[in-house]
Amino acid sequence: MNDAPLIDVWVYLAETPLLWLTLTLVAYVLAFGLYRASGSSPLVNPVALAVLILIGLLLASGTSYDSYFAGAQFVHFLLGPATVSLAVPLYRQRAKLTTLWLPILVALVCGIFAAALSALAIAAVFGADVATLLSLAPKSVTAPVAMGIAEQLGGHPSLTAVLVVATGILGAVMGTPLFRWLRIREDSVKGIAMGVTSHGIGTARAFQVSGEMGAFSGLAMALSAFASALLLPPVLSWIGFGG
Amino acid sequence: MLGALTLILVCQLVGEVLVGVTGLPVPGPVAGMVLLLAGLFARGRVDEGLDTATTGLLSHLSLLFVPAGVGVMVHWDSLRSGWLAMGLALVVSTLIGLAVTALVMQGMQALMARSGAADE
Question: What is the DSSP string of A198-236?
Fold first, then answer.
């Protein structure tokens, strides 16, 4: 008897952006709480956890990604202003930047090609098709630029967006233990490596380690967006992909 | 705070317009970041409001990637068929990218420190 009003409420909620916007925040707050409870373990990645919670909810309620995104787009939109905001931590590191620009630029170009070409080679050996390879190539670049590069090369931009997020999470999880193993101690070096390989998600993780690592990661992410957009398409078509 | 948020959005908007007009191969927000950085250098300091607004936006940067991450459900089929190739490529290339970038930068710094010491 009481089912009808409940369905009405569901129909109303399912059609406004409020429900999935709120649930996106709730899932993240929960995931972040778990991350904190784990003692900030890089293995408990808040993005991955929140994504899993939300996919569970979407599948259980039979909601499509498009109707989810109608609400979640407000969070997604903030990526732009957040990118602009990176100017502030960068400005604070200006003294270090003026002395480190040459090592940063050389490391950046080496890192971009090491990540992109090793991904292509491995996926090609394991039999991925050409469109997948081209979607994979820009995976270390921040999402909006990576999608543009994939489109230019002839890959699937939306698949690229997913691979970009996965790469970000992997870098955020594996970065700190890898740096410890390689005995890299300077936050500026760790930050640059994180930003080149794992863009914004790596930068988010870097800010949790220190403000300096975050600022350098943000710088590397921005420089890598420029450099990858300029260098990846011509180099990949030169070695025989896309064009 | 309101002024700072407006400034951030104006930078992004001008960045988007610049990219659209000039055909620069970078996204609008990255151009906007360069504009804001240039503004900070011109002004010589970070105002309190801008500090509060940017710290707020950046302190939970991870949250902003969640909606794009949920998009994995749309690509479930193509991911499942190629999971081995893609998974291995992602894990190994991320490790290689991190290690190469960090080691090259550290090596360059050591090289420059040594040549700097030799010059003196």
Answer: HHHHHHHHHHHH-HHHHHHHHHHHHHHHHHHHHHHHHHH
B113 to chain A, minimum CA–CA distance in Å? Answer: 11
Asked if residue A102 and residue A72 are part of one domain, the reply reads no
Final residue of a structural domain among A51, A77, A103: A77
* Subunit contact A81:B73, Cβ cutoff 8 A: no
* B65/A201 touch (CB, cutoff 8 Å), yes or no: yes
Q: Are A83 and B35 in contact (CB under 8 A)?
A: no
Q: Least CA distance to A232: which residue of chain B? A: B25
Would you call B75 and A115 a contact, using CB atoms and an 8 Å cutoff? no
- Answer yes or no: do A107 and B46 touch at CB < 8 A: no
- A77 contacts: CB under 8 Å, gap ≥ 6: none
Identify which of A49, A80, A40 has the alpha carbon closest to the alpha carbon of residue B11.
A80
Measured between CB atoms, does A232 come within 8 Å of chain B? no
What is the maximal distance between C-alpha atoms in chain A? 73
Could you say which of A26, A52, A77 is where a domain stops? A77
* Optimal mutation site among A84, A92, A165, A189, interface B, most CBs of chain B within 10 A: A84
Complex confidence, ipTM: 0.87
Q: Quick check: is A185 in a domain?
A: yes
Is the same domain home to A96 and A19?
A: no
Tell me which residue range forms the domain holding A67.
Answer: 3-77
pLDDT in tens, B43-100: 999 999 999 999 888 888 788 888 888 988 887 877 777 788 888 999 999 999 999 9
A134 and A170 share a domain?
yes
**A155 at the B interface (CB within 8 A)?**
no
